[in-house]
Amino acid sequence: MARLPRLYAPQIPQLVQAEFASPLAAVQDPTPQDQLDQLQQWLQRDVREYRIALHGWLLLNDRITLLATADDAQGMARLIQSLGRRMAAGMRHGRVFAGRYRSALVEPGQWVLPALIWLESLPVRLHYVDEAARWPWSSAGAHTGLQGPQAAAATDRTLLTDHSDYWHGGNTPFARQAYYRERLSRGLSASQSARIDQALFGQWVLGEADFLAHMESQTTRRIAPAPRGRPRKAKVVDVSNA
After folding, report:
1. First vs last Cα of the chain: how many Å apart?
2. pLDDT in tens, 10-43
3. For the chain, what is the domain count?
4. Mean pLDDT of the chain
5. C-alpha dist (Å) from residue 121 to 81, 115, 148, 201, 242
6. Is the pTM above the cut of 0.70?
7. pLDDT band, very low/low/confident/very high, at 1 (cuts 50, 70, 90)
8. At 24, which CATH number?
9. What whole-number distance in Å separates Cα of residue 239 and Cα of residue 235?
10. Predicted local distance difference test score (pLDDT) of residue 235
11. 221 in a structural domain
12. Which of 176, 197, 203, 241 has the lowest tally of Cβ within 10 angstroms?
């Protein structure tokens, strides 16, 4: 099957996930802290180099997951390629990633916060920690304020560019953090999680009908899965005796 062209639109965030060909460590093994710290440093350097506005990030033993807005159509690919080259040169031998990274465009105003919650909740769902903010290699600590004010401020300056949807949670940092903590603790509905999974792993657009219609006019490929089943046959009307 031919690979789908990547979707890109100016000022539209992307949810991105790149899985490692082999994990840095198993979940039950000691956390590979030095490697994850090194990955974080490379990520900090490369988001500046490739002009990526990083709204949320997560490093796990087996994957990199990002929510970000790229300055141009090639920015995200260059970022992932650069991280792969750095890992191949200084951390791994052989193949780094298990295949192409997956990505989905995310509708602002509707799906950015759910996508961020989905991303930052992964360490809990995958049984690394029991609370999202307790995983150090993630933006969850900064967004919730549970990372400590100095660490959170440093992360914000060097890595994060919070999306306007996050800022709408309150007029002060404390109000935004409190609002986001409540949203993160509440989690997502099963249908929201399924929508995000489907969009990311199918490399579709994550959004509502009006947004999908707008994005469809901007691209030459499908942006959502085709309806299941065979197309309905058109009804034939006999007009010979009309």
Report:
1. 48
2. 899 999 999 999 999 887 888 999 999 999 999 9
3. 1
4. 86
5. 25, 10, 19, 17, 64
6. yes
7. very low
8. 3.30.70.1290
9. 12
10. 41
11. no
12. 241
